Amino acid sequence: MCQVAFCLRGKRVRIDHDTTFVETREIPAIHSGGPSSAAGRRQTECYKRLTSRGLRYEGGLTIMGRERSHCMQRRDFLKTAGLATGGALVSGTQARADHHLEALPLSGAMFRRQNGQIVLMGRGVNFSVSDNGGQSWSTPKPLVSDGEAVRADGDVVGLLRLASGKVVLSYVRSRQDGTRRRQGIFLRTSADDGHTWSGESTLTPFPDDDLSALHASMVQLRSGRLVLPAYARYSHDYPGRPRGLGSTWLPEYRITVILASDDEGRTWQYSPGLHLWKDLGHGGLVGCGEANVVETKDGRLMMLASTTNMRMVSSYSSDGGETWSYVDLNDLSTSDAPLRLVRNPQTDDLLLVWNQVTAREHRDGFGRGRLSMAVSRDSGETWDDFTSLATSPGMERVARVVDTEPPGFVREGENMSPGQVPDNAMGGIVCSTRPNVSFLEGEVLIDYRRWFIPNLWASESERQEITQAVHVLPTA
Amino acid sequence: MERYLRYPEQKGGLIELADGRLMGIIRGLLKFYSEDRGRTYSEPEPLLADGEQISGFGDPGGVLRLRSGAIGITYLGPLEPEDFPGFGPLAPGRSSEKQRALYFRKSTDEGQTWSPAQRVAGPGVAQSYSLHDTIICLQNGRLVWPCYGGVRGYRPTNPPKVEGLERGIGHLWYTEALSPTKIYYSDDEGKTWSVSDGDLMLWLDGGQGNLDALHEPTVAEAKDGRLVLLARCGQMRVVQSFSYDQGKTWTLPELSELNSANAPIRVRRIPTTGDLMVVWNQVTAEEHRSGYGRYRLSAAISKDSGQTWTNFRNIHVSPGLNESPRVSDSEAAGFVRPGSNAKPGAPMPDNPVQGYLRASYANLFFVGDEVLIEHDYWYQTDPFHSHEVPERWKHLTKDRNRQTSTGHKLSSLPRKLHILPLSWFYTDCSP
Prior knowledge:
The structure holds two protein chains of two kinds. By secondary structure, chain A is mainly beta. Chain A has three helices and 33 strands.
């Protein structure tokens, strides 16, 4: 195994050419609704269990190696090499006593204050701060504005410092409208580094709108324009349908609407809907949601989203998001899971993090079992430097997945029977999904949600070891 | 048996008034009357509320008799940003500021005055829409209005050529977005509205073929109590779905046995028998590829609540097409692009009219023992309009200047009315 070593933040770090990450942290995540939610309580319990067993979260420790034993138990796997793909959960005997707990307690978005403090916000809206560059985080608490909690049962879809110095916060909240529930996207700004916030305005133009967006997907262009790739979702949970998992077990359609503002969020315009007209209609319509938009080094906007057809779709805009090129499939294999596309502010290269899997793996229930990364230096036309960030037991560890099956609709887990335990060393699946990427002064922080499930049909309450795994890499 | 009559040149609906006249409401919210069971019609005039014309746009105009005896109308109407305070202001100068919504109004004096407008759906980034005159009143008084709509699809910059052409004819030559169907219903004669569970769309081959749009749905209440929804799609078949709870939930839409162009379908319950009648463009895939997708208009009856169809009849067949009342398609259902075998500049067809006579967007009404079927009716030399229209057909071409004598705009297309005895549809049941 090839290894190199160097110092990062004063810590000696080794790099394994196979696992390739540099520094990992294992962090308890707090899910929707914050620490008082059911998911949050499970997380806390998870953390207590681990610490009571002599395990400890430790930041800055490099985990090396790969799965060594075919009869390895899940706990062992989590303790050692398996989590090398995502975290640094280590035994107490290995932990260094002088290391404090590093925690990224929320899945959301972050910005840096003028004084260097990092502010992280997630569902709730709950927020946490770090005064040491992300090494440790305060206990999350609800965001309050004018004495009232800022409510969001959906994601924080934007938290960024604008060119003017203002900070913008955008989040999703649902409301009951007669017999149906609708999601709206809201916005506040702050002129004092996020200490106080303006009143709430809405990006959702009309009463009938039901729009959402992927967390942390709002961007500001060089022109100052704010862009959010929102989407509308339609589905038909018809009587008597077979019950499977995910969005491929019932008719579902998502269409992406690019919301744009040229006045720092006061007024908005929206684009026509983006979706895939596969094979010029002969392949049917394919939805397109949870998209990412990024400004490329050649000045265009690139939209990228996953689909139900085992490939991503992409489109470009040369006029700031008003019109778009033909949405078409590219050759990047993916399940229908959220991806993350960002621009490296230092190099203007694009960084992509996503669930890179084959159709067969998706049918076997591993659609979110491998998390990969790639870089594009030509505005998204081609991709290089494929890297695997996390690989579930039962999957092959490869950097680049090339699926021999042509793009086509694949139903999640259709090879698995309800309750069937995967035939692998851990007897389950480690899912790694919903990645985000944050750039923090010379470092790039990649976080994603990870959990273990004993079988694909396990309910959300049966998820175990839920964590918000983090990789820290030098930006260069 | 059959009489061809001119009909007000606009899509709309027709009901029988208490005094025996017929009253029609058409797109643009104009009304007209017939005192001779549909043989002649008065000049359309604006529909007024408090002395002001009610503004209505587009197809969703319709009219129906409610269980209480009142009359209801539906339409697409305008609204201003003040009508939806608290929602995001649009950037200045955006054309999308012009928003519209689906409305319902009621009249308790046979259409002389109208209640304030009740907004049923919209506005939204996803626009709500309906085929004309699709609202129905169930036996229990519930109003059911099948609508559809979604986010308007994008037009790509530098689009790829389709079938080797920059632009073809009709639909499916560009990236049309999917417009899911929703069914709105009201149990208080339009004061409050609910919407069906889920968004109906066509899931091809259980998803393996991805999705197709389900457009312009129509609904009828069958004699066994179920609701039957029929709609168009791009797969050469009529789409069907059923509801067994008066419109709240719907079965997975599926392709029916009725072969069809991607053109509107109309289904209604025959009041005297409880059977269902459908009127639609019954064509084969090959005819559709040749550009004949809307040139045969047929009718059929279902005696088993929409499960099977019999008693096929042709209402209109353009010269050059098979005149058999039942035109089955030997091709399996699948995506067909209209006119994909037709090319610009092809010679004028060698048939008696040197062109085609189109009939589509039909509506049907039951008046006593007669069936009134009306549809658009226009002449084309070929799908691409490559040749000058012969003089004798110029009155049946598109004319954007059609208007009433009082200056109100009518459709650019002529319309034609057939008055047929209902018994004609029941005699000699073999197709």
